[in-house]
Amino acid sequence: MKRRLNIAHRGFSGKYPENTMIAFKKAVGAGCDGIENDLHVTKDGVVVICHDETIDRTTTGKGYIKDYTFNELQKFDAGVKFGKEFQGERIPDLDEFLEYVKDKNILINLELKNNIIDYIGLEEKVIDKIYEYKLRKNVILSSFNHYSMVRVKRYDGHIKTGLLCSEILYKPYKYVKLVGADALHPNFRSIISKKIVNSMHERKIMINAYTVNKDEDMKRMIELNIDGIITDYPDKLNEILQI
Question: Choosing from 9, 40, 146, 185, which is the catalytic residue?
Fold first, then answer.
C-alpha cells in the first residue's frame, strides 16, 4: 500500500500560528509531505495567505483583507494572539511562501478563498505565480467555489484542482468528473465507505480529506486508503504513518 500524504493544514497550525512562515517551516521540519494554505487578494492586488476574509481572529488588526494594501497589512501582528513567543509574525504574501517551498519537493495545496468574496482574477494571479516559481507539478488548487475550479481549468488545463466539500455526496466521482477536477477534498467525516474511495481511484480521482486531528480518525483514513490527510498535527500523523 502506498504511503498516505501528510499535508499540514495552514502549516503546523496545531502548535504554531496558522498560515505564518514559522508554521510552514515547522511543518517541513516535522516531515510533512505537503502544506495547505489559504489565499486572498489585498486592495492593491497582492495575493496573501490568511484563512478568514477578515484579519480580526488571527491578527492585531480588524477588517477585511480586501480593504487593506499589503503594506498596511504588514503593520499587524499575526502571531501574538496564538502566543506571546510568536510576536512579530506577519501575514505572508504568496511570493514569500513559494520562494520558501520552491526547492522542498512537497505538495503545495493552495486554497482559493473566493467562496464568500469572489476575488476577480484570483485564479490567474495564482497560476501565473505558480509558473513564475516553476512549481506546476507540485501544486493543486482547491476551493469551495467550484466555479472557480472551472475557471482554473479554462485558464490552464494543466493545473490540478480539488473540490472542497463538507457534505456527503452521492456518487462523488460523477460530480468531480462533471466539474473537470482532479481531486475531491472532503471533510473527513463525509467519507462513508471504502467502496466510494475505490470508485474514485478507479477513475484516477484523488481524495485528500480535511481536517484530521485525532489518532483514531487518522487511522480510519489510512484504512480507507485515501490519498492525502490534511491535519493540524503533521508530527502526530508522521508517527502513525510509520507504524
Answer: 9
185 catalytically annotated: no
The answer, as to whether pTM is greater than 0.85, is yes
Contacts of 229 (CB under 8 A, 6+ apart): 4, 5, 6, 7, 188, 208, 209, 212, 218, 221, 222, 237
Predicted pLDDT at 243: 83
Which one, of 187, 213, 214, 191, lies nearest residue 201 by Cα? 191
Q: Alpha-carbon distance 60 to 71, whole Å?
A: 15
Per the residue annotation, which of 40, 51, 146, 158 is the catalytic one?
51
CATH number (domain holding residue 37): 3.20.20.190
**Domain that includes residue 192, residue range:** 5-52+93-241
**Which grid coordinates belong to 109?**
495545496
158 carries an active-site annotation? no
